[in-house]
Amino acid sequence: MRAVTIDDFGATPTVTEVAQPTPGPGEILVRVRAASLNGFDGAVVYGFLKDMLEHKFPITLGKDFAGTVEAVGEGVERAAGEKVFGVVMKPVVSDGSFGEYVVVGEGYGIAAIPEGVDFAQAGALGLAGTAAAGVIDAIAPAEGETVLVAGATGGVGAYAIQLAAAAGATVIATAKPGEETDFVLGLGAAHAVDWTGDLAAQVRAIAPEGVTSAVHLAGDPAQVAELVAAGGRLASTLGFGPEHAEGLDLTVTSVMANPDAATLERLATAVAAGTVRVPIAGTYALDAVAEAFGAFGAGTLGKIAVTVG
Fold this sequence. Notes:
There is one protein chain. The chain has 2 domains: 2-125 and 278-307, Alpha-Beta Complex (Quinone Oxidoreductase, Chain A, domain 1); 128-254, NAD(P)-binding Rossmann-like Domain (Rossmann fold, 3-Layer(aba) Sandwich). It is 27% helix and 31% strand. Helix 3 (126-139) crosses helix 4. It is an alpha/beta fold.
Protein backbone atom coordinates (compact mmCIF):
# COMPACT_ATOMS: atom_id res chain seq x y z
CA MET A 1 0.00 0.00 0.00
CA ARG A 2 1.03 3.64 -0.41
CA ALA A 3 2.06 5.51 2.72
CA VAL A 4 3.99 8.62 3.78
CA THR A 5 7.13 7.46 5.53
CA ILE A 6 10.51 8.53 6.86
CA ASP A 7 13.52 6.23 7.22
CA ASP A 8 15.43 8.40 9.69
CA PHE A 9 15.02 11.49 11.85
CA GLY A 10 15.17 14.64 9.77
CA ALA A 11 14.32 12.87 6.50
CA THR A 12 11.81 14.41 4.11
CA PRO A 13 8.46 12.59 4.30
CA THR A 14 7.91 10.71 1.03
CA VAL A 15 5.29 8.38 -0.40
CA THR A 16 6.57 4.80 -0.51
CA GLU A 17 5.16 1.29 -0.84
CA VAL A 18 4.81 -0.62 2.45
CA ALA A 19 3.13 -3.86 3.38
CA GLN A 20 -0.58 -3.63 4.12
CA PRO A 21 -1.12 -4.38 7.83
CA THR A 22 -3.31 -7.18 9.14
CA PRO A 23 -5.50 -6.85 12.24
CA GLY A 24 -4.79 -9.15 15.16
CA PRO A 25 -7.08 -10.00 18.07
CA GLY A 26 -8.87 -6.88 19.30
CA GLU A 27 -7.71 -4.84 16.31
CA ILE A 28 -9.39 -3.14 13.36
CA LEU A 29 -8.08 -2.58 9.85
CA VAL A 30 -9.28 0.83 8.68
CA ARG A 31 -9.25 1.96 5.09
CA VAL A 32 -8.14 5.54 5.58
CA ARG A 33 -10.03 8.21 3.69
CA ALA A 34 -8.82 11.33 5.50
CA ALA A 35 -6.29 12.46 8.09
CA SER A 36 -4.64 15.68 9.25
CA LEU A 37 -1.32 17.07 10.45
CA ASN A 38 -0.53 17.69 14.09
CA GLY A 39 2.47 19.02 15.96
CA PHE A 40 3.19 15.43 16.99
CA ASP A 41 3.97 14.55 13.35
CA GLY A 42 6.60 17.25 13.07
CA ALA A 43 8.07 16.20 16.41
CA VAL A 44 8.46 12.65 15.06
CA VAL A 45 10.12 13.82 11.85
CA TYR A 46 12.70 15.92 13.67
CA GLY A 47 13.35 13.43 16.45
CA PHE A 48 12.05 15.58 19.28
CA LEU A 49 10.41 12.55 20.88
CA LYS A 50 13.19 10.00 20.35
CA ASP A 51 14.15 9.97 24.03
CA MET A 52 10.53 9.65 25.20
CA LEU A 53 9.01 7.11 22.82
CA GLU A 54 10.32 4.05 21.02
CA HIS A 55 10.57 4.54 17.23
CA LYS A 56 10.75 1.81 14.61
CA PHE A 57 11.81 2.73 11.07
CA PRO A 58 10.52 3.05 8.47
CA ILE A 59 7.87 5.13 10.21
CA THR A 60 4.52 5.78 8.59
CA LEU A 61 3.55 9.24 9.85
CA GLY A 62 0.13 10.40 11.00
CA LYS A 63 -2.02 10.28 14.14
CA ASP A 64 -5.53 11.31 13.04
CA PHE A 65 -7.60 9.04 10.82
CA ALA A 66 -11.10 8.74 9.38
CA GLY A 67 -12.32 5.98 7.10
CA THR A 68 -14.19 2.70 6.95
CA VAL A 69 -13.67 -0.62 8.68
CA GLU A 70 -12.06 -2.98 6.16
CA ALA A 71 -11.56 -6.03 8.37
CA VAL A 72 -11.49 -6.94 12.06
CA GLY A 73 -9.52 -9.29 14.28
CA GLU A 74 -10.84 -11.80 16.74
CA GLY A 75 -13.12 -10.40 19.43
CA VAL A 76 -14.04 -7.18 17.58
CA GLU A 77 -17.74 -6.43 17.10
CA ARG A 78 -17.49 -3.63 14.54
CA ALA A 79 -18.69 -4.51 11.05
CA ALA A 80 -16.93 -4.02 7.72
CA GLY A 81 -18.00 -0.76 6.11
CA GLU A 82 -18.65 1.10 9.37
CA LYS A 83 -17.44 4.70 9.29
CA VAL A 84 -14.93 5.39 12.06
CA PHE A 85 -12.42 8.02 13.14
CA GLY A 86 -9.93 8.61 15.88
CA VAL A 87 -6.27 8.74 16.81
CA VAL A 88 -3.56 6.11 16.33
CA MET A 89 -2.48 5.22 19.88
CA LYS A 90 0.40 2.74 19.99
CA PRO A 91 3.36 2.32 22.35
CA VAL A 92 5.83 2.33 19.43
CA VAL A 93 5.93 5.09 16.81
CA SER A 94 5.89 3.16 13.55
CA ASP A 95 2.51 2.56 11.90
CA GLY A 96 0.62 5.81 11.45
CA SER A 97 -2.40 7.00 9.52
CA PHE A 98 -0.81 8.63 6.46
CA GLY A 99 -1.37 5.55 4.36
CA GLU A 100 -4.13 3.70 2.58
CA TYR A 101 -4.73 1.46 5.60
CA VAL A 102 -3.98 1.51 9.31
CA VAL A 103 -4.53 -1.01 12.11
CA VAL A 104 -5.82 0.39 15.39
CA GLY A 105 -7.02 -1.11 18.65
CA GLU A 106 -10.71 -1.59 19.31
CA GLY A 107 -10.68 -0.33 22.87
CA TYR A 108 -9.14 3.14 22.67
CA GLY A 109 -8.74 5.97 20.18
CA ILE A 110 -11.64 5.09 17.89
CA ALA A 111 -15.32 6.01 17.56
CA ALA A 112 -18.09 5.90 14.99
CA ILE A 113 -18.59 8.86 12.66
CA PRO A 114 -22.14 10.16 13.15
CA GLU A 115 -24.48 11.26 10.40
CA GLY A 116 -23.77 14.80 9.31
CA VAL A 117 -19.99 14.54 9.68
CA ASP A 118 -17.87 13.77 6.61
CA PHE A 119 -14.50 12.05 6.40
CA ALA A 120 -12.56 15.31 6.02
CA GLN A 121 -14.09 16.77 9.19
CA ALA A 122 -13.63 13.58 11.20
CA GLY A 123 -10.06 13.20 9.98
CA ALA A 124 -9.11 16.61 11.38
CA LEU A 125 -10.87 16.23 14.71
CA GLY A 126 -9.17 13.53 16.78
CA LEU A 127 -5.92 14.68 18.37
CA ALA A 128 -6.41 18.46 18.38
CA GLY A 129 -10.05 18.16 19.35
CA THR A 130 -9.43 15.88 22.31
CA ALA A 131 -6.51 18.03 23.49
CA ALA A 132 -8.82 21.06 23.40
CA ALA A 133 -11.54 19.14 25.23
CA GLY A 134 -8.98 18.21 27.88
CA VAL A 135 -7.89 21.76 28.61
CA ILE A 136 -11.44 23.12 28.60
CA ASP A 137 -12.62 20.33 30.89
CA ALA A 138 -9.71 21.14 33.21
CA ILE A 139 -10.59 24.83 33.57
CA ALA A 140 -14.36 24.15 33.46
CA PRO A 141 -15.45 27.62 32.32
CA ALA A 142 -18.86 28.79 33.49
CA GLU A 143 -21.34 31.23 32.02
CA GLY A 144 -19.98 34.77 32.23
CA GLU A 145 -16.40 33.85 33.09
CA THR A 146 -13.45 35.12 31.06
CA VAL A 147 -11.03 32.69 29.40
CA LEU A 148 -7.70 33.58 27.80
CA VAL A 149 -6.61 31.21 25.03
CA ALA A 150 -2.87 31.62 24.39
CA GLY A 151 -1.94 29.91 21.14
CA ALA A 152 -5.41 30.36 19.73
CA THR A 153 -4.77 30.12 15.99
CA GLY A 154 -3.61 26.50 15.75
CA GLY A 155 -5.76 23.42 15.65
CA VAL A 156 -6.03 22.92 19.41
CA GLY A 157 -6.62 26.63 19.98
CA ALA A 158 -9.33 26.79 17.34
CA TYR A 159 -11.26 24.02 19.07
CA ALA A 160 -10.60 25.45 22.54
CA ILE A 161 -12.09 28.82 21.55
CA GLN A 162 -15.27 27.15 20.37
CA LEU A 163 -15.65 24.86 23.38
CA ALA A 164 -15.10 27.70 25.85
CA ALA A 165 -17.52 29.98 24.00
CA ALA A 166 -20.12 27.19 23.88
CA ALA A 167 -19.87 26.97 27.68
CA GLY A 168 -20.88 30.63 27.88
CA ALA A 169 -17.45 32.08 28.62
CA THR A 170 -16.11 35.33 27.19
CA VAL A 171 -13.05 34.26 25.22
CA ILE A 172 -9.94 36.40 24.77
CA ALA A 173 -7.78 34.86 22.04
CA THR A 174 -4.20 35.66 21.07
CA ALA A 175 -3.94 36.64 17.41
CA LYS A 176 -2.06 39.11 15.29
CA PRO A 177 -4.13 41.84 13.59
CA GLY A 178 -5.65 40.94 10.23
CA GLU A 179 -6.29 37.37 9.14
CA GLU A 180 -5.50 35.84 12.53
CA THR A 181 -7.86 38.18 14.34
CA ASP A 182 -10.64 37.54 11.83
CA PHE A 183 -10.08 33.80 12.29
CA VAL A 184 -10.42 33.74 16.08
CA LEU A 185 -13.36 36.14 16.15
CA GLY A 186 -15.09 33.98 13.55
CA LEU A 187 -14.76 30.98 15.89
CA GLY A 188 -16.50 32.75 18.75
CA ALA A 189 -13.80 34.71 20.56
CA ALA A 190 -15.13 37.99 21.94
CA HIS A 191 -11.72 39.70 21.88
CA ALA A 192 -8.39 39.28 20.09
CA VAL A 193 -5.11 40.41 21.67
CA ASP A 194 -1.86 40.76 19.73
CA TRP A 195 0.75 38.47 21.29
CA THR A 196 3.52 40.37 19.45
CA GLY A 197 2.70 43.51 21.45
CA ASP A 198 2.13 44.23 25.14
CA LEU A 199 -0.02 41.20 25.88
CA ALA A 200 -0.48 41.98 29.56
CA ALA A 201 -1.70 45.51 28.93
CA GLN A 202 -4.19 44.31 26.31
CA VAL A 203 -5.61 41.59 28.53
CA ARG A 204 -5.79 43.86 31.58
CA ALA A 205 -7.70 46.43 29.52
CA ILE A 206 -10.41 43.80 29.03
CA ALA A 207 -10.15 42.07 32.41
CA PRO A 208 -8.54 44.49 34.91
CA GLU A 209 -8.50 41.95 37.75
CA GLY A 210 -7.25 39.19 35.49
CA VAL A 211 -9.07 36.48 33.57
CA THR A 212 -10.96 33.75 35.38
CA SER A 213 -8.96 31.04 33.64
CA ALA A 214 -6.46 30.49 30.85
CA VAL A 215 -5.47 27.87 28.31
CA HIS A 216 -1.74 27.74 27.59
CA LEU A 217 -0.98 26.28 24.16
CA ALA A 218 1.90 28.58 23.17
CA GLY A 219 4.08 31.34 24.54
CA ASP A 220 5.56 31.99 27.98
CA PRO A 221 3.52 30.07 30.57
CA ALA A 222 4.65 32.35 33.39
CA GLN A 223 3.30 35.37 31.54
CA VAL A 224 -0.01 33.63 30.92
CA ALA A 225 -0.25 32.59 34.60
CA GLU A 226 0.28 36.19 35.72
CA LEU A 227 -2.82 37.22 33.77
CA VAL A 228 -5.10 34.86 35.69
CA ALA A 229 -6.96 36.30 38.68
CA ALA A 230 -6.28 34.94 42.16
CA GLY A 231 -8.11 31.67 42.68
CA GLY A 232 -8.35 31.07 38.94
CA ARG A 233 -7.46 28.08 36.76
CA LEU A 234 -4.86 27.41 34.10
CA ALA A 235 -4.46 24.36 31.86
CA SER A 236 -1.42 23.75 29.66
CA THR A 237 -0.61 21.23 26.94
CA LEU A 238 3.09 22.14 27.08
CA GLY A 239 4.12 20.58 30.37
CA PHE A 240 3.40 23.55 32.65
CA GLY A 241 2.04 21.93 35.80
CA PRO A 242 1.41 22.67 39.49
CA GLU A 243 5.10 22.31 40.31
CA HIS A 244 5.83 25.33 38.09
CA ALA A 245 3.25 27.57 39.76
CA GLU A 246 4.42 27.56 43.36
CA GLY A 247 3.46 30.76 45.13
CA LEU A 248 0.62 31.50 42.71
CA ASP A 249 -2.99 31.32 43.86
CA LEU A 250 -4.00 29.20 40.88
CA THR A 251 -5.18 25.70 40.10
CA VAL A 252 -2.81 24.52 37.36
CA THR A 253 -3.33 21.37 35.28
CA SER A 254 -0.95 19.82 32.76
CA VAL A 255 -3.03 18.15 30.05
CA MET A 256 -2.34 15.52 27.41
CA ALA A 257 -4.87 14.61 24.72
CA ASN A 258 -7.03 11.67 25.78
CA PRO A 259 -8.85 10.34 22.70
CA ASP A 260 -11.10 7.92 24.49
CA ALA A 261 -14.33 6.93 22.78
CA ALA A 262 -16.50 9.16 24.98
CA THR A 263 -14.50 12.30 24.18
CA LEU A 264 -14.34 11.51 20.47
CA GLU A 265 -18.08 10.90 20.38
CA ARG A 266 -18.78 14.13 22.26
CA LEU A 267 -16.75 16.14 19.76
CA ALA A 268 -18.25 14.45 16.70
CA THR A 269 -21.75 15.02 18.05
CA ALA A 270 -20.95 18.72 18.49
CA VAL A 271 -19.70 18.90 14.91
CA ALA A 272 -22.82 17.15 13.63
CA ALA A 273 -24.98 19.59 15.59
CA GLY A 274 -23.08 22.59 14.21
CA THR A 275 -21.89 23.82 17.60
CA VAL A 276 -18.24 23.06 16.73
CA ARG A 277 -16.73 23.78 13.34
CA VAL A 278 -13.73 21.85 12.02
CA PRO A 279 -11.40 24.67 10.88
CA ILE A 280 -9.72 23.18 7.81
CA ALA A 281 -7.39 25.76 6.27
CA GLY A 282 -6.02 23.58 3.46
CA THR A 283 -6.32 20.08 2.06
CA TYR A 284 -3.47 18.05 0.56
CA ALA A 285 -3.41 14.71 -1.23
CA LEU A 286 -1.15 11.94 0.08
CA ASP A 287 1.43 12.71 -2.61
CA ALA A 288 1.65 16.31 -1.38
CA VAL A 289 2.14 15.65 2.33
CA ALA A 290 5.72 16.98 2.23
CA GLU A 291 4.26 20.26 0.97
CA ALA A 292 1.63 20.08 3.70
CA PHE A 293 4.38 19.84 6.33
CA GLY A 294 5.84 23.04 4.94
CA ALA A 295 2.51 24.81 5.21
CA PHE A 296 2.06 23.54 8.75
CA GLY A 297 5.48 24.79 9.77
CA ALA A 298 4.71 28.22 8.32
CA GLY A 299 1.84 28.59 10.78
CA THR A 300 -1.37 27.77 8.94
CA LEU A 301 -4.53 28.82 10.76
CA GLY A 302 -6.53 25.90 12.07
CA LYS A 303 -6.06 22.41 10.64
CA ILE A 304 -4.37 20.98 7.55
CA ALA A 305 -6.29 18.03 6.15
CA VAL A 306 -4.93 15.08 4.18
CA THR A 307 -7.01 13.09 1.73
CA VAL A 308 -6.23 9.44 1.04
CA GLY A 309 -7.56 7.48 -1.92
